[in-house]
Amino acid sequence: SALVFCRTRLEVDELTSMLNGRGYRGEGLHGGMNQAQRDRVMQSFRAGKTELLVATDVAARGLDIPHVSHVVNYDVPSSPEAYVHRIGRTGRAGRAGEAITLVESRERWLLQNIERLTKSKVEMGTLPTVADLQAKRLEQIGVSIQDILKANDFEQFRVVVNTLTEKFDQADIAAAAIQLVYGSKTGDRVEEDIPAIRDRAPDTSQTARRPRRGPLDFPDSGRVLRGGGGGGRPVGRRDRHSQSTSMATLHVNAGRMAGVRTGDLVGAIANEAGISSNVIGPIKVSDQFSLVKVPEEHVHDIIKALGRTRIKGQKVTIRLYKE
Questions:
Q1: What is the pLDDT of residues 141-165, one digit of tens each?
Q2: Phi, psi for 147 (deg, rounded to 5)
Q3: Ranges in the chain annotated CATH 3.30.70.330
Q4: Predicted local distance difference test score (pLDDT) of residue 93
């Protein structure tokens, strides 16, 4: 089992949802959960029913689970103390353990601070390519097929093979079956290689020191307006309403995998709740769910209105998200 650390509750929920959508047994743990939820998650992780526990630093304090084989830092911890605390969750009771930290180019200075203050060198590795992942998946499928062949418990499926061999080559049939299994594991998602970090001197400017935007942090800018006396400046939905407006975040249990787009959410909220689209704030559509920022004064009306409608043909549940 592995423990994955994130900085925020939103990152925990997003990453857990994505992992579960790709077939992993993951659970989230953060301060926004009540004690009963936290106890259930920890019981499942201790029993080995959960492969990946995705947690914030605060929620993971005091964890002492001996069978954690890997700790993954989804981002570079902001302090050496936090780094030491995180990686100390693995390799307990004399067991072997491995810690992996995902680093963006602009975060290299944080890693160098950790190396300097802990007086230890962090070994730099490379992320696997898409080709590497594909080869590993095929290797795993091959191992699974060997196990099935050794068990010799596939007689009921011979009728399909016998029928197909009347028209097709046996090797082609086997390859097609493997393709079917491979597709069931990966779906139709498009995978792209992540560019390698270039080895360069750290940029200690204020821009470089800005924390990495998390997967659920809302963008501050949209398109750039050009021309006019004010010059180009980034604007987005936030500029459409007063910056003093108190905003709340709503969680909708439908996302990209349900075909939901930003426009669908804007249309549903505006049409069903009778609210101008101009007051709707930033929207983040994730794989399994979506987050929408709206003025607090409209929260009740929006939840009530969307509770009786469908988005992309799907009945949705909408609730206030505690950040």
A1: 999 999 999 999 899 999 999 999 9
A2: -65, -40
A3: 243-321
A4: 56
Q: Looking at the chain, list the stretches that DSSP marks H as alpha helix, in order from N- to C-terminal side.
A: 9-21, 35-46, 80-87, 108-118, 130-151, 158-164, 170-186, 206-209, 262-273, 299-306
Half-sphere exposure (Cβ direction) of 153: Cα atoms closer than 13 Å: 4
Cα(302)–Cα(317) distance, rounded to whole angstroms?
11
Answer whether 0.70 is exceeded by the pTM.
no
Is 300 exposed, middle or buried (CB count within 10 Å of its CB: 0-12, 13-18, 19+)?
exposed
Distance CA 53, CA 63 (A): 11
Residue listed under structure tokens 């980034």: 234
Domain(s) of CATH 3.40.50.300: residues in the chain: 2-118
- CB distance 97 to 66 below 8 Å: no
Report the C-alpha gap between 191 and 290 in whole angstroms: 22
Length of the chain: 323
* Backbone phi and psi for residue 159, each to the nearest 5 degrees, phi listed first: -60, -35
The region that residue 63 occupies, defined by phi over 0 for left and psi between -120 and 50 for alpha, beta otherwise, is beta
Nearest to 7 by CA among 204, 263, 215: 215
Contact (Cβ atoms closer than 8 angstroms) between residue 283 and residue 251 = no
Longest dimension (CA), the chain: 78
The superfamily (CATH) of domain 243-321 is: RRM (RNA recognition motif) domain (3.30.70.330)
CATH of domain 2-118: 3.40.50.300
Phi, psi values for residue 228, rounded to 5°: 80, 175
